[in-house]
Write a structure and sequence with these properties.
The structure holds 2 protein chains of 2 kinds.
Chain A (H helix, E strand, L loop, with lengths): L3 E12 L2 E12 L3 E5 L6 H8 L7 E6 L2 E2 L5 H7 L1 E4 L11 H6 L5 E2 L2 E2 L7 H9 L14 H14 L4 E5 L7 H16 L3 E6 L2 H7 L2 E6 L2 E7 L6 H9 L17 E9 L4 E8 L3 E5 L6 H8 L6 E6 L2 E2 L5 H6 L2 E4 L3 H5 L6 H6 L7 E2 L2 E2 L1 H14 L16 H13 L5 E5 L7 H18 L2 E6 L2 H7 L2 E6 L2 E7 L6 H8 L4
Parallel strand pairs in A: 3-10, 3-11, 6-9, 9-10, 15-22, 15-23, 18-21, 21-22
Antiparallel strand pairs in A: 1-2, 1-4, 4-5, 7-8, 11-12, 13-14, 13-16, 16-17, 19-20, 23-24
Chain B lengths: L3 H27 L6 H26 L7 H17 L4 H24 L5 H20 L14 H4 L1 E2 L2 E2 H19 L1 H11 L1 H6 L4 H27 L10 H11 L11 H20 L4 H26 L1
Helix pairs in contact in B: 1-12, 1-13, 2-7, 2-8, 2-10, 2-11, 2-12, 3-4, 3-5, 3-10, 4-5, 4-10, 7-8, 11-12
Classes of the chains: A alpha/beta, B mainly alpha.
Chain lengths: ~500, ~325
């Protein structure tokens, strides 16, 4: 019972410019549920990828069942009996349950795939976990929880010894979560070891035997869950006390409402009400699945909704970004490469694209104006580039993000929505971007909403902080230097 | 200091110009008639239609769409142009109506793609069959030559000085589209949409309107080509333009336009069209059977694209 199934010894992983994991060591005992917690960027997913053989470690060693373990690729680790259920569940939507279960492990006779029989082990496992799923069901028609079940079934049937789950409850309902926990407890009884990665601290107390806390690529501590006295102890371990930048207080005129949301509802949002004042920075904080991105998308006219959005007191009925932008709202999207940038185009072509009126007359563009606008932003945001005609694909993450921000600033909006404005950006670029955001609000009177999954960023920037949990606003706080990050974490993880 | 982007597109052009030069030299060694002014005019007139329709199609493909219906559109508009003329409608009016009918086909393609969200390959494939069928229906499956006015063939066969009018028309259209591609908001948006559709939407680009306009432009110029071709042949023929859409796509791809969108160039397409044109012409002059011409054309297309990729990877 006390034997270590997996030992992680002094693992480090260095990416160009970033230390993702720094001398990480801990052991996972056989037949336990071992939780790993940490903020975004703490190194959780890097660690999984190393365990799965998807990344090469920079240094350190792994032992699996007492033997040195050095997976060269994912297939090798799977063959050894280590499997992961990722957040984006690895199933093929267009195939049936049977085809999914067979995928990659098809037993065939002369090339004809053997059908799954009722006596097959995999069928029994599926029925045991969820008897309502039929082999002929198409995956696209199943709920997220059921898709997860199919993925878990497949993994269990392939003689898994260690099952890693990455944020499995991010998009599950309460009922589905309790069902998943039942499944996991059952698997544990059958002798499977589970590594459970989560943001949600309550879950650790519910199913965890051990918990390892990661922060900035370091292991803070590994403990038995029964020895953890309270959630705040975990929160302390996760966040420590790291405030490099300080919040700079500002006088906000609370007479002018720039933006007002009244009872906004959709699939994720359950009645959102708030107001944004002129020149204010409003910060939205919540975990994955809390509805942060959805609020940004609703304001930007991307998702359907019920309820009213008012811009300076006037109802806006915009149904697409084009019309929202024309009314003076712009957004810096969450994913810069897939949503923000035209990577094949140059810096200047990217910067001017949201406001081509500035560079054109009767639809004919002026290369001179385009260049001068680009040069202005390159200087203002200190974008490190050879020239404005360099294509953005080859810029660093921080500089790419600055191009996205420039593009948005060039739209000259009165309200700017920033979804994860500094994700994947190095520390110095981060500070520059924060300074810029503050300057926009304080000096130019732009009203700003920051959506971030980094509490530090929210505390540094926001005049008021909105806390979200499962599509609802739990609390709105005025920022001040003595704000209590522990109570914030408590609220966004489902406490009171 | 020149930047990576410029180097890359210059390189692309150099590769394809190199291929063109190699083909021209090879063919002039193989056939004595090849390297003559008369023959060059001949090729230019032949590729003129491909280039005229290739211009808007290059932009359309840059935006990430395809149009397979232009061959059928050329046939049906050519037939209708002749038909209108036989009814005594003035020639210029008949030509204009044929162009507008072409634009209508493009508009239908655009509505299918933009509003009914059908992928462009499927939508335009449907219209390819419909237009071809209509060309036969409107003509009863026969050539329309009885009752045509005597000046019916003027537009297609006219010379201005020593230069065929068709040549002048295609140069003007290339110039216009080169300008649209590089100097207009419309051109920029086409690149943006093909390069990253999501980012284009989030940047407030009206993807639907741009796409629709691109299809209408393709249709209009296909109609215009139908008129030019009908006039040059001096007859309305329902079976013209078979495979025309693929000749254009070959030219566009040889010219460095990506099928996935976001990259491409009008001038590249022009060079690509000449490669195809010279090749067909040279093989004809050498008396090679048309079956073999088809085989060689296919090999040259794939070979050119492979060569282009190999050279680019070497340089990286």
């Amino acid at each position: 019972m006390d034997e270590n199934i997996l030992e992680i010894n002094n693992i480090s992983k260095v990416f160009p410019g970033v230390i993702a994991l720094n001398d990480v060591s801990f052991a996972v005992k056989r037949n336990t549920i071992h939780c790993i917690v940490g903020e975004n960027g703490a190194g959780k997913s890097t660690l999984i990828k190393i365990l799965m053989g998807a990344y090469k470690r920079t240094s350190g060693s792994l032992f699996f069942e007492g033997k040195e373990y050095d997976p060269k690729n994912v297939k090798e680790s799977m063959n050894m009996g280590i499997n992961t259920i990722y957040q984006e569940i690895n199933v093929v939507e267009t195939l049936t349950v049977e085809q999914n279960l067979n995928l990659g492990i098809e037993e065939n006779k002369l090339g004809v795939i053997k059908r799954i029989k009722k006596t097959d082990n995999i069928y029994k496992i599926l029925k045991e976990i969820d008897s309502s799923i039929k082999l002929s069901d198409e995956l696209a028609g199943l709920s997220v929880a059921q898709k997860q079940t199919v993925a878990i079934t497949k993994v269990i049937a392939s003689k898994t010894k260690v099952l890693i789950l990455d944020e499995p409850t991010a998009s599950l309902s309460e009922f589905e979560v309790s069902k998943l926990f039942e499944i996991l407890m059952n698997l544990k009884k059958q002798g499977i070891t589970i590594i459970y990665i989560t943001h949600k601290l309550n879950e650790i107390f519910e199913i965890g035997d051990y918990v390892t806390t990661l922060r900035d690529g370091n292991v803070i501590e590994t403990k038995q869950v029964k020895d953890v006295t309270s959630k705040s102890e975990l929160i302390n371990m996760m966040f420590g006390k790291v405030f490099t930048e300080k919040y700079i207080p500002a006088e906000i005129d609370r007479n002018i409402k720039a933006l007002e949301l009244l009872n906004i509802k959709n699939k994720v949002l359950k009645g959102i009400n708030f107001e944004l004042f002129k020149g204010e920075i409003l910060g939205f904080y919540g975990l994955i699945g809390s509805g942060k991105t959805e609020i940004a998308r609703v304001i930007y006219g991307l998702d359907k909704k019920e309820g009213i959005i008012k811009l300076f007191g006037k109802d806006i009925k915009s149904k697409n970004p084009l019309s929202v932008i024309s009314k003076g709202i712009s957004m810096i999207p969450e994913e810069r490469r897939t949503q923000g940038l035209f990577t094949e185009l140059s810096i200047s072509e990217n910067i001017v694209i949201m406001n081509t009126k500035k560079i054109s007359r009767f639809g004919i563009t002026s290369a001179i104006k385009e260049r001068s606008i680009a040069k202005y932003f390159i200087k203002r945001l200190m974008i490190a580039a050879k020239s404005e005609s360099q294509i953005v694909a080859f810029l660093s993450g921080g500089n790419q993000q600055k191009v996205v921000i420039s593009k948005c600033l060039n739209a000259e909006s009165t309200i700017i929505l920033l979804d994860e404005p500094t994700r994947g950006v190095d520390v110095s670029a981060k500070e520059e971007i924060h300074k810029l955001i503050r300057g926009l609000a304080r000096e130019s009177g732009v009203s700003i909403i920051v959506f971030s999954s980094e509490l530090e960023e929210i505390l540094t920037l926001s005049d008021r902080i909105v806390l979200l949990y499962e599509g609802k606003i739990k609390k709105v706080l005025d920022n001040s230097s003595d704000i209590d990050s522990k109570s914030i974490m408590d609220i966004v993880t489902g406490g009171n | 200091m020149r930047t990576a982007k410029i180097n890359k597109s210059v390189l692309q052009k150099l590769v394809i110009i190199g291929i063109l030069v190699v083909i021209v030299i090879a063919l002039s060694l193989l056939s004595k008639q090849f390297l003559t002014a008369a023959n060059f005019y001949n090729v230019a007139v032949q590729v003129a239609l491909v280039i005229i329709v290739g211009c808007p199609i290059t932009l359309l493909m840059i935006s990430g769409n395809l149009d397979l219906s232009v061959g059928g559109t050329i046939a049906v508009t050519g037939i209708l142009f002749a038909k209108f003329a036989t009814w005594g409608i003035p020639l210029w009016m008949s030509a204009l109506m044929a162009c507008l009918i072409g634009a209508l086909v493009g508009y239908i393609n655009g509505v299918l793609v933009v509003h009914l969200k059908i992928t462009s390959v499927i939508a335009t494939l449907g219209l390819m069959y419909v237009t071809r069928g209509l060309a036969y229906i409107f003509s009863d499956g026969k050539n329309i030559n009885a009752g045509l006015p005597t000046n019916f063939d003027r537009l297609g066969r006219m010379f201005i000085g020593p230069v065929p009018l068709a040549l002048i028309i295609f140069i003007v259209i290339v110039a216009i589209f080169y300008f649209v591609e590089s100097k207009t908001v419309f051109g920029k948006y086409s690149f943006a949409i093909g390069g990253n559709r999501t980012a284009a939407e989030l940047s407030g680009i009206d993807i639907g309107r741009i796409t629709l306009l691109l299809f209408v432009l393709v249709g209009f110029l296909a109609g215009f080509s139908g008129v030019l071709l009908g006039s040059r042949l001096g007859v309305g023929q329902p079976n013209v333009g078979v495979g025309f859409e693929f000749d254009i796509i070959v030219a566009v791809i040889l010219g460095g336009t990506s099928l996935a969108g976001g990259k491409g160039s009008i001038l590249g397409m022009v060079i690509g069209a000449f490669i195809v044109g010279f090749l067909a012409n040279g093989l004809n002059l050498m008396g090679i059977a048309s079956f073999w011409q088809s085989v060689i054309k296919g090999i040259v297309l794939v070979g050119a694209v492979v060569l282009d990729r190999l050279i680019k990877e070497k340089i990286k």
